[in-house]
Design goal:
There is one protein chain. It is flat and about 70 Å long. Helix 10 crosses helix 13. By secondary structure, the protein is α/β, with parallel strands linked by helices. The strands form 2 sheets. The chain has a 6-stranded mixed β-sheet, sandwiched between helices. The chain has a two-stranded antiparallel ribbon with strand order 7-8. It is built from 17 helices and 8 strands. The protein has 3 domains: 190 residues, Ribonuclease H-like superfamily/Ribonuclease H (Nucleotidyltransferase, domain 5); 91 residues, DNA polymerase, domain 1 (Orthogonal Bundle), CATH 1.10.150.80; 88 residues, DNA polymerase, domain 1, CATH 1.10.150.80. The protein is 48% helix and 11% strand.
Length: 393
């Protein structure tokens, strides 16, 4: 096993940062606990650089802001596998992302590997190294951590640079670095925008409610959000989504009427009912201009059969060109592309299969298929994909 430093103090963190001051790349991973929590508890950070291997203990150091700042320096490439959670930790700590992100799972999708591909499989398929994943159910919040647990955690960063170098070579050979960089940018932009979205609108079924009811839903969601965040527990343990909708239907701040709603655990003078009524009252007092607007979505033909055929076609095409079809497109994307070609896609909808690297890969192919330039036949062999598409002569 490689030698490593276990950093457990603020002063130790400063020494670690001094040691990696000139690092050009930082490979990193995290261990955390998210079950039953509103925000995941960060329990361990694994780091590899050209200067060595390190484990950072957030439960003892507490403030890792200086590490996240170091990760975000413009001259440093951050390397990770499926880095969404890591980027979220970074953003919550310092309000920004690393400027040079290399996600090996994403890079692999552009050079013939499945997407998403777990780290164990990716390590074996790229650099032919078998790693141990026996500690996947470890409680990383318990202290002290065993030596075997620490060594297991290091496995997740020891090979990241080697994998990144392998994938970079493949990307360069296939001239797909620009595609990878574009998709990395889009991923980071999407993740960043998720922090600013109106998350209360994600409550299933809320789209059909009136503006008054939406105002109540928003206030109740905000009330629940603040309580769940303060206690770091799952929001449903405070108040379920379906109860938010049910309360909103009544459009009243009368505690007597709220208390008798089925599922409300409290009397009219209980703390819960009082807080609910305060939120409802705030919503009902809003001027019309400040109430949420009802969102309408223009509909368009579903093109079911064409979508199914195109899905098969694109799957085979992406496989042929060594790009993961699951990364390139979804069924909804294909449906939009067909509607866009047919001129029935509403102007409010964005068709991404004709933009950027997806447009380069698939745009002309989709147009040719829909314009009748491809034919289909059933293969005479027993294959996983017996349908064959070929261009008409």
């Amino acid at each position: 096993m490689v030698k490593y430093q276990f950093v457990q103090t603020q002063s130790g963190l400063l020494r670690f940062l001094d040691e990696i001051e000139n690092a050009t790349w930082i490979a990193y991973d995290t261990e955390f606990i998210s079950e039953g929590r509103y925000v995941a508890d960060l329990c361990l950070v694994q780091v590899a650089t050209e200067y060595g291997y390190y484990l950072l203990d957030p439960l003892k150091i507490r403030d890792l802001s200086s590490f996240w700042e170091r990760l975000c320096q413009e001259d440093t490439t951050s390397i990770a596998h499926s880095c969404r959670s890591e980027l979220e930790f970074c953003y919550r700590a310092i309000g920004k992302f690393p400027s040079r992100v290399f996600d090996v799972q994403l890079a692999a999708a552009f050079v013939g590997f499945e997407y998403p591909l777990n780290f164990k499989s990716l390590t074996q398929q790229t650099i032919n190294v078998q790693i141990d994943k026996s500690e996947t159910r470890t409680d990383w919040s318990r202290r002290p951590l065993l030596t075997s647990q620490l060594e297991y955690a290091l496995n997740d960063v020891c090979y990241l640079k080697q994998i990144a170098d392998y994938l970079t070579t493949r990307l360069e050979e296939q001239e797909r670095i620009p595609w990878f960089l574009e998709e990395t940018r889009l991923f980071c932009e999407s993740l960043l925008s998720s922090f600013d979205q109106e998350h209360w609108r994600r409550i299933l079924g809320s789209k059909k409610y009136s503006r008054d009811e939406l105002a109540i839903i928003r206030e109740l969601w905000t009330w629940r959000h603040e309580k769940a965040l303060a206690k770091n527990i799952a929001p449903a343990r405070i108040f379920r989504d379906d109860m938010i909708l049910e309360v909103a239907k009544h459009k009243t701040a009368d505690p007597q009427r709220i208390a008798v709603i089925r599922g409300i655990k409290g009397t009219a003078d209980s703390y819960l009912v009082r807080e609910l009524c305060e939120s409802i009252e705030r919503a009902l007092k809003l001027p019309e201009a400040k109430k949420p607007k009802m969102k309408t979505h223009d509909s368009y033909p579903q093109y079911s059969l064409a979508t199914q055929l195109m899905n098969v076609l694109i799957g085979q095409y992406c496989k042929e060109y060594g790009v993961s079809a699951r990364l390139a497109t979804t069924v909804a994307d294909i449906r939009q592309a067909i509607a866009f070609y047919a001129g029935t896609l509403p102007s409010s909808e964005h068709c991404k299969l004709f933009d950027g690297w997806r447009g380069e890969l698939l745009g002309t192919y989709i147009e040719d298929f829909l314009s009748g330039k491809y034919a289909m036949k059933f293969s005479d062999k027993l294959e996983d994909h017996p349908l064959t598409f070929f261009k008409n002569k």
